[in-house]
Write a structure and sequence with these properties.
Elements lengths: L8 E6 L6 H12 L2 E4 H14 L7 H7 L5 E4 L6 E4 L2 E2 L7 H11 L2 H17 L3 E6 L2 H5 L5 E6 L2 H11 L5 H17 L12 E4 L5 H18 L1
Parallel strand pairs: 1-6, 1-7, 2-6, 7-8
Antiparallel strand pairs: 3-4, 4-5
Helix pairs in contact: 1-9, 2-4, 2-5, 7-8
Bound molecules: adenosine-5'-triphosphate and ligand LCLUPRNS.
Ligand LCLUPRNS binds next to helix 2, helix 4 and helix 8.
Length: about 230
């Protein structure tokens, strides 16, 4: 891994669920010696905390009132990304069906977004060699001055097939409907919705293998680095 005197590079990778953001971002960051931040994990972590503390997920005012309480810490090593809430490792619990079904409602609350956005900007600006940050609003809101913005897409069918393979035997149609529902909620919220930045490079991953997507993004990052 060669970092030399390279200037830090900030890469924003956004897109709907199951388009390959986490797999691609982690691999690109590892290959180029950059930090990695999974912002979805942060929204899942705060959702897990709300559920664990009996906060009514249907009540945005109740969520807003306690949004500042949990201490969320993200580890940004792409070889070992971590996430903790008030000192507890929540990497497993944040992936449950319950958290997945509630995360869109919690992440739509402006006070939650303001809190998490601040954490994301702090991590991005402190990454010594640069960082790959993946999510839904990174290129549009969190890091509008990112050196490179990528927007990954894929057909709902391809995304559902990938997820069902991951969940071993999950029904593809039910998975597809759940993905579509979550994307619709994330795209239609008022504050900082899932959206492609005007200056993002769109990469349709439907017919690409994961190594092909990684290679494509690594090439784009290297071009940006060379031009810095
Ligand atoms: N191009 C690809 N071809 C085949 N499978 C892929 C491809 N990209 C990612 N995958 C697989 O699809 C699944 C979902 O990928 P990943 O978790 O990276 O997506 P994501 O966009 O981060 O999803 P989410 O937003 O829901 O967290 C994983 O099992 C991953 O290995
Ligand atoms: N920048 C982000 C990242 C994530 N979210 C919300 C919306 C997603 O449905 C949820 C979980 O993300 P995932 O783990 O599936 O990538 O978190 C967001 O609003 N903004």
């Amino acid at each position: 891994m060669e970092n030399g005197a390279a200037k830090p590079v900030i890469v924003a990778i956004d897109g709907p669920s199951g388009t390959g953001k986490s797999s691609t971002s982690k691999a690109v960051a590892a290959q180029l010696g950059l930090s990695y931040l999974d912002t979805g994990a942060q929204y899942r972590a705060i959702t897990w905390w709300m559920v664990s503390n009996g906060i009514d997920i249907e009540d945005p005012t109740a969520i807003a009132a306690v949004a500042a309480k949990p201490e969320i810490i993200s580890g940004t090593d792409p070889a070992n990304p971590t996430i903790s809430v008030d000192g507890t490792d929540v990497a497993g619990p944040i992936r449950t069906q319950e958290v997945t079904s509630k995360v869109s409602a919690v992440s739509a609350v402006p006070e939650v977004r303001a809190r998490i956005t601040e954490l994301q900007r702090t991590l991005a600006t402190s990454a010594e060699y640069g960082i790959v940050v993946e999510g839904r609003d990174i290129g549009t809101t969190v890091l509008p001055d990112a050196d490179l913005k990528i927007f990954l897409t894929a057909s709902a069918e391809a995304r559902a097939a990938r997820r069902s393979g991951e969940l071993k035997g999950a029904d593809v149609n039910a998975t597809r409907e759940a993905l579509i529902k979550r994307d619709a909620a994330d795209s239609s919220r008022k504050t900082s919705p899932l959206a492609k930045a005007d200056d993002a490079v769109e990469v349709d991953t439907t017919a690409l293998t994961l190594p092909q997507v990684i290679e494509c993004v690594v090439t784009l990052v290297e071009e940006k680095r060379a031009a810095k």
